[in-house]
């Protein structure tokens, strides 16, 4: 199994950690306040498979790294420790939290393209942004189950997407490939696929029928 680096100890980060450990992975988790603030979380997750670290250390130790921090904070992410690393992007754009971002308001970019621009030497893959945090450890099912939930991914690097697909499979999810990061708008907030539980076929149908609107 893998060591999953997690940057961000909010709802998404902690629930991915729970699901990953249940599936047999180790996790190294970081937040902006320092590893000493994560003692209770590590005690809950179990010190055998989880440890707290600085952001730089979590980035270096992970076989791949989940970014689960507010969108407005991505420019603070260190670049060098994430070079040539598969980076899972769980970001969504909430103007009331992140401030207005013209490139997103006018559909010039997607949130994942902004992260890829900040991390030009990383392999960014959109993932985990359209499932409610509490459902991440709860909705996984064995491969082949007729009700198995699917999660959308997008990215430029086929090898990186394969890494994420295999990781999702260990957690009990199918992956639906959207294509490049420029197509990840199809699963951003307020789209049909954002939130509801769907099988792979249902998610593909929802994604195909999604229309792009300006952000509000």
Molecular structure report:
The structure is a single chain. The chain is of the alpha/beta class and 216 residues long. The protein has a single domain, classed as Rossmann fold (3-Layer(aba) Sandwich), CATH 3.40.50. It is 30% helix and 16% strand. It has 8 helices and 8 strands; from the N terminus they run E-H-E-H-E-H-E-E-H-H-H-E-E-H-E-H. It has helices at residues 11-22, 39-45, 55-61, 95-98, 102-105, 111-118, 158-171, 200-208, and strands spanning 3-7, 26-30, 50-52, 64-67, 86-89, 123-126, 150-155, 174-177. Strands 3-2-1-4-5-6-7-8 form an 8-stranded mixed sheet, with helices on both faces. Strand 7 (150-155), helix 7 (158-171) and strand 8 (174-177) form a beta-alpha-beta unit. The radius of gyration is 16 Å and the shape is globular. The mean pLDDT is 96.
């Amino acid at each position: 199994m893998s060591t999953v680096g997690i940057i961000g100890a909010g709802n998404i980060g902690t629930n991915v950690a729970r699901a990953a450990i249940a599936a047999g992975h180790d996790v190294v988790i970081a937040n902006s306040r320092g590893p000493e603030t994560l003692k209770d979380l590590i005690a809950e997750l179990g010190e055998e498979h989880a440890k707290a670290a600085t952001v730089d250390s979590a980035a270096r130790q992970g076989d791949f790294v989940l970014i689960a921090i507010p969108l407005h904070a991505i420019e603070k992410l260190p670049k060098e420790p994430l070079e040539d690393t598969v980076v899972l992007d769980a970001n969504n754009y909430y103007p009331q939290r992140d401030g207005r971002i013209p490139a997103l308001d006018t559909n010039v970019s997607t949130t994942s393209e902004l992260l890829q621009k900040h991390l030009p030497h990383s392999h960014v893959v959109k993932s985990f942004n359209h499932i409610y945090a509490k459902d991440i450890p709860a909705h996984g099912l064995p491969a082949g189950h007729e009700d198995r939930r699917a999660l959308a991914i997008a990215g430029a690097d086929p090898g990186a997407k394969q890494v994420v697909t295999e990781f999702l499979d260990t957690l009990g999810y199918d992956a639906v490939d959207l294509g490049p990061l420029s197509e990840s708008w199809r699963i951003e907030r307020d789209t049909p696929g954002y939130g509801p539980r769907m099988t792979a076929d249902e998610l593909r149908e929802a994604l195909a029928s999604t229309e792009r609107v300006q952000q509000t």
